[in-house]
Amino acid sequence: MKKFLLSCLFFVGLFWALSSYQGLAVQGKYDSMVLNFRDNLSPAQVERELKAISAKYGIEPKFNSPFSKSENLYVVKGDAQVLEKLKQSEELLNLTEYVEANYVYSMEFIGDSTPNDPMYKEQWNLKAIEVEKAWQKTKGKGITVAVIDTGVSKVDDLKSTNFVKGYDFVNDREDASDDNGHGTHVAGTIAQSTNNNFGVAGIAYEANIMPLKVLSASGGGTISDIAEAIIFAADNGANVINMSLGGGGESKLMQDAIDYAYKKGVVIVAAAGNSNRNAAFYPARYPKVIAVSATGSTGEKAPYSNYGAGIDLAAPGGAISRGKNGEKGDTSGGILQNTIDPKTKQSVFSSFQGTSMASPHVAGVVALIEASGVKDPEKVFQILKQSSRKSTDDTLNYYGAGHLNAAAAVNLASQGQLGIPDFLRWARDNGYLSPRFWVDGGAIALIPKLIMMIGSYLLAWLLNRWFPFRWNWSFNNGIFFGGAGLFFLRGFYLFDVTQLPFRIAGSSLPELGNAFSNTNALNPITASVLLPLGLLLILLGHPQWKWFAIGSAIGTSACLATSAVLAPQMMWIGEGSPAIAFLSVNSLLCFGFAYLSIKSETSTL
Amino acid sequence: MGHDAPHLLALFENSYSKYMNIQIVGTVEYIDIGNGTWAVITDTDEQYEIWQPAPEAILQEGLKVKVNAKIRDDVFTTAAIGDVLEIEDFQRLG
User: Fold this and answer.
1) Is the pLDDT confidence value at A74 over 90?
2) Total tally of structural domains belonging to chain B
3) Which of the residues of A are catalytic?
4) Which of residues 72-91 of B touch A (CB under 8 A)?
5) Torsion of CA B50, B51, B53, B56, to 10 degrees
6) What ipTM was reported for this prediction?
7) Is B48 part of a structural domain of the chain?
8) CA nearest to B41, candidates B52, B56, B30
9) Model-level pTM?
10) A218 and B82 in contact by Cβ < 8 A?
C-alpha cells in the first residue's frame, strides 16, 4: 500500500512539474484563425462546410487572398471562445489539415512612427516584422547596405534615400543603374524613402544604399563579378551585404570573397532560393551567410520557398496567385516597392514575390541592429535568431530560427543582453567542413526530451525499489529508445535530399508514426501501449531482450506522460482533453505492463 | 586502356572545369518570381531556369520540348529557381 501511495505521489509530482512548465514557444496575440482544408476536398465540399460554419457560429470565413483559395486556406475572425469551439469541432478536424491561431503581428500604430506614405497600408510585410516599433529607436542611420543585384535606379521613391558610391561590374563603370527592375525593388525594401508623403516605405530608410550591379538586364550574372562585388563592398565600408540571387554551384572564389568580407565585419544575407526544395541555394548555403526563406501574408512558408537544410531565418517574401494565361493574379499578397519597368525604364510600383524579397527584409533589420550598436556579424546573427518569433510546429525547418521581428531585434540589440549560443552550434559549424551536411539546433525541444529521459529513469528506479532486479544494458537501451531516442539526429540534414531517415533514426518508439508525416502531432498507433506490449509479448521469453522490452515500456510511459502534459496533440484525435486522456491512459497501461512483467520476472527468481 | 585514358580525362574535365551537357524533356513555363523568368519543368517537377538570351521560339507558355543544353553552374540569377540551362538546340514535342 505504501508503495502504491508512493507511486501515486510520483505521478502527481511529475504531472504538476510538467503542467507548470510553460513550453518553449513564445505566445503571440491573435484575433482570427486559419483553416486549412484538406487539398483533396472538392470546392463544393469546402463551400458546404464554410456555410455550415457561418450558420453555426455566426462568422464568415474568407480566403486570405485569391492565392490561398487554391490552397484551401481560409481565415475566420472571432474572439478566443469561438476560436476554441472551432478548434474542437470534430467535423472540422476531419476536413482540415489544421486549424490554428492566425497570430497578428501587432497592428497598433504608435504615434509618430506611422509613416505618411500613402501606400504604406498595403505593406502587410512591414507590419508582419513590427518595423514601426523598431523605428522608435532607430531608422538605420550611418549604416551602409550593399545591394549586389541588377543595379539600383534612383526612382521617385528613392529620391531622399542616401546613396554611396557603387559599381557596375557588368558594364565596368561607376554608374550602377538598374536595367532590370529587381535590384531597385530590393533596395526599396531596405531603404525606400519613407515618411515623404509619397509611395511606400522601406525598413532602414536612413541607411545608405551601395548599388553594385552584377546581374545583367536579363537577371543573370557570373560568379567572378559577384565575388568582386563582395570584396568591393567589404573594402568600401559596407556593413551589410544583400544578395537576392542564387541558382549556381559551389565556388571557391565566392567562398573566399565571403570569408574576406565576414572577417572585415560585414554581415552577409542571401535569398534561400525559389524551388521549394530541402536546401538553401548558394550563396545562401555558405556558412557565413544568413539564408532567408520566404513567407506569405499568413506567415506560412511561401509555396516556392526553399526550406530545410541551411535555412537560418524566415521573412516576408510574398505569395501571388497565378492569374489566367500566366498573367499575375491579385498581387496584394506580394511585396510592394517602387522600381523600374524593365521595358520602358519608367518608375513603377510593383508587387513581387520571392526569397529575393525576403532577404532584403533581413538586410534592412540588420542595418537597424547595427545602428543600435551591435556590429559583430556573429552577434548580429545571434540577435536575429534570438529575437525571431518561433514557430512551434516547424519539423521541416521552413523558418529556421523563426520569423523575423524588427522590434524585438532592435530591443535586444540596444539592451545588449544575449543568451547562450545555440545548442549543437559546434556540430553545425563543424558540419560546414563538409558542405553536404547541416544541423538545425532549433529542431529539438531539448527540455521536454530531458524530462522524458529523467522521467523514464525515475519510473525505472521506482520499480527497482519495488522489485529489486539487475539493471542491465538491454534494459537501459529499452528505456532510452522508448523514452527519448537518439533525438539529436532530428536536427541533422543533408542538402538536397529528404530528411526522413534522420527523423526516423531520431525518434523514440512513440514518435515513429509522426516521423513519417512530418508533424509534431503524435500518431495514436505508435504513441500508445501497442508497441511496448507487442515487444513484451514477443521478447518476454528471451533472457536478455525481455529487459529491452520492459525498458521500452517504461520509456514509452514517460514519453506519453510528458506529451500528455506538454504537447497533447494527436493525429485524428486532435488537441486538448481527448488527446490528454488517450496519452494518460496509454502511459498508465505501459507502466502497468512494465510493472506486471517485472513483478513476474522477479517472483520467478 | 592506353586508348581509353585520354577520353576519360576529357570527360572528367568536361564535368569539372566546363559545363555539364544535359538533355531534358519538359514543358516551358513562365514563372512569376521577382520580375519573372522562363523555365523548363520536367514531368517529375524538376525546375530549370532558361538562361538568356535563349532562342525566341522556345519562350512560349505550355510548349512541350526536348532540349539539349549546358548546365551553367558558374552563373547566378535573380529568380534562383534551380539549375540554369543554356539552351543549345531544342525540339518541339506534340
Assistant:
1) no
2) 1
3) 149, 182, 356
4) 72-84
5) -10
6) 0.81
7) yes
8) B30
9) 0.73
10) no
